[in-house]
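Risk mitigation, structural track. In case the binding assays with pyridoxal-5'-phosphate fail to produce interpretable data, a predicted complex structure has been prepared as a fallback.
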Amino acid sequence: MNTFKKTISFIREQFGEPESFIPLHEPRFIGREREYVNDAIDSTFVSSVGEYVNRFEKDISNKVGVKYTVATSNGTSAIHAALIISGVKYSNEVITQALTFVATSNAISYVGANPVFLDVDIDTMSLSPLSLKRFLKNETYSKNGRTYNKKTGAHISACLPMHTFGFSCRIDEIVEICNQYNILVIEDAAESLGTTFKGRQTGTFGKLGVYSFNGNKTITSGGGGVIVTDCEKLAKLAKHITTTAKVNHSWEFYHDMIGYNYRMPNLNAALACAQLEQLDNFIERKRKLASNYINFFKDKEINFISEPLNCRSNYWLMCLGFKNPIEKSKFLKFSNENKIMTRPVWQLMFRLPMYKNCYRDDQKNAIILESTVINIPSSVIF
Ligand SMILES: *Cc1c(COP(=O)(O)O)cnc(C)c1O
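Fallback model:
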């Protein structure tokens, strides 16, 4: 109990909040946010076209090192659009992890495909290349260059690994394995903007990558997302399908396929441009907080989970690991009663009614993490 009390005071010290509620992650607006948002209002271009959208797309491309970026209304719509343009069809299967936010699986369902839940690695908390290799070797067969699930007969057309809490998965191995099986990789990098793996930005290894700018992410546009890619054809298709598939013409309304209204409004893009200017600063400060946590927990029975090998993390949501589920529950109760927000990781996807019958492997690591890991306050500190 003494450690619990010390932990609470330590967290309060970090955030300079001796008494009030401390959330898990809150946005910081310390740059040119007001200037850009006011400018968008003055321009009257507050909706789905405008200079800030174009600028934000260019800025993201430069920041992460890709050729093309398409801004969207949120991260979920970005994943949905990415799956459609990848050619994932009704009744296909898409490999992902059960330890993820529900949006990953929901986007797969939106295209009528089914998620296949494979285990994560303990250190990255993200899709395990070993589990992936084992599944593909033992549970699938190849026909006409395509990979099919032996049990369900379904075509496995894509793999959607997620970089959990801003840690990177072993994305180079995952891409290499998927290439062997002709499975397209889309990275759900919603949580990992600015995280690098072997020096390269997460979200840029797969054919497509997706980031989210929801209010609780490292930087925010209020609501928003992007799709990134080096493929010109896919970038054009992404833009087209997220803008109602309207064929460019000054006055005629002609749409050549079923499109979506998934555009990022210019008002949100204005906020996003200002936030992106702060990204490096935010990550430095979050990494400072992580290093403070590491020092504090060094000699404690609670384990602060540090970034895995080869990964420089944005430390989006920081994690504590407990010896057992009982200690974890005690700390969750104690911290929340003391107005420090902490929460368990998401319940694994196959526990949710809509995903309970989906294919899954043994989930050994995911179950360990689910029962012992929590998130702690991780906002940018000053
Ligand atoms: C936040 C998040 C999303 C969805 O982003 P929204 O912008 O909230 O739609 C998708 N996947 C993961 C893993 C996320 O954390």
